[in-house]
Amino acid sequence: MVSCQSKTPDTESNTSVNLSKMKEKFPNQKTAFEKINNKVDFYEPSGNKRLSIDLQKSLYKVGLTSNIYREHLIKINDQLYFLPKKVDSKQIFSDCDKGTSQGNISRQFEINELGLAIMQQADSPSDNKIKTNEIVYKYNKFGQLLKVLENKKIIAEYIYDAGGYLTEAKIAKNSITYQYNKEGFITIEERHENGIKISLRYQYNSAKQLINKMSENQNHAEEFGYDNTGRLSSIIKYSAEIDKNNPDKLINNFVKKIYNYADERLSEEKIYEYRIVNASVLVNKKWQPLDIDQQRKMAWEKMTDTDEIPTSGIERSYKYNENSIIVSINHFNFSNRVVDGKAKLEKELSNSESIKFSLDLSGKIVKKETTDKKGGTTVENYSY
């Protein structure tokens, strides 16, 4: 792969501007963003869409593999978010001994004509006083986020080359750098997290969809699966570590996320965690040790086995009604127990909550009601 990444940041691509145009192009003449009526689409220099905004409904649709900053957006699911101009949150805590108590939080957003947040003010109680945080968002001419400042301190920063390609993202004390091929697709992602460097190489299928990220030592990987319509259907995140008490034993950790769709919208998200350890295998009634590579290979093979038991899971379902969106969330623990001499999978509900998003006549979300297993509720009201 040949990198088209610039060695130094480009001045124009990293200069903050007040966005006033309704359309802009990258230097390669591909569209950076375009507003048509109440819809705004933002793109990568490669041509891939990274964000779509429905201004009438204040809904934000992001790519499931996108690295777009979304901390200020309010989440419906992994693909769909929204952003009102004002949020009023009230949390009611249920306590069997003390009855109920509550706390209030307020946030206000300033949003430009393209639907991008440019300022957020958050008020919350602290030591019997109201604490106010001001968060500012700065963008370049292509509508790409440059900086996020909280009380004038940079908490996130993005650096681009002359073509508008993201070359480095800095969030808190962590950073990620990117390299690209001639077509503008990422080939290498290098993470620096808590003093640890992890370099991941990207692989794509014939449709130019990302299918794999993997480190050179294979201890870190992500795999992406797609359905027959090209929609993302699964993500498997893998990390491995040597057992501290046994240098010949590899601990394989997997997080598998499954997406299901109905009427072009996400209907289910399922997340399962696995911890697989196979230091030996039974051969001719004798246990034979496996080397590290064999252990890793067997762990990946078990991930394709539908009988492999996760340690825990979260299942979310989404129901889209004319005046509401209902989200049901269930947390599970799994175990394999022997009953009458036979192994039996047990799936135990450990926690649950439900969320109701209420819509007004224009389709905007005006209220979010969250109810947990114990009856505690959080209510957020939104205005535009």
TrEMBL record:
<feature type="domain" description="Teneurin-like YD-shell">
    <location>
        <begin position="129"/>
        <end position="233"/>
    </location>
</feature>
<protein>
    <recommendedName>
        <fullName>Teneurin-like YD-shell domain-containing protein</fullName>
    </recommendedName>
</protein>
<dbReference type="InterPro" id="IPR056823">
    <property type="entry name" value="TEN-like_YD-shell"/>
</dbReference>
<feature type="region of interest" description="Disordered">
    <location>
        <begin position="1"/>
        <end position="21"/>
    </location>
</feature>
<feature type="compositionally biased region" description="Polar residues">
    <location>
        <begin position="1"/>
        <end position="19"/>
    </location>
</feature>
<dbReference type="Pfam" id="PF25023">
    <property type="entry name" value="TEN_YD-shell"/>
</dbReference>
<keyword id="KW-0677">Repeat</keyword>
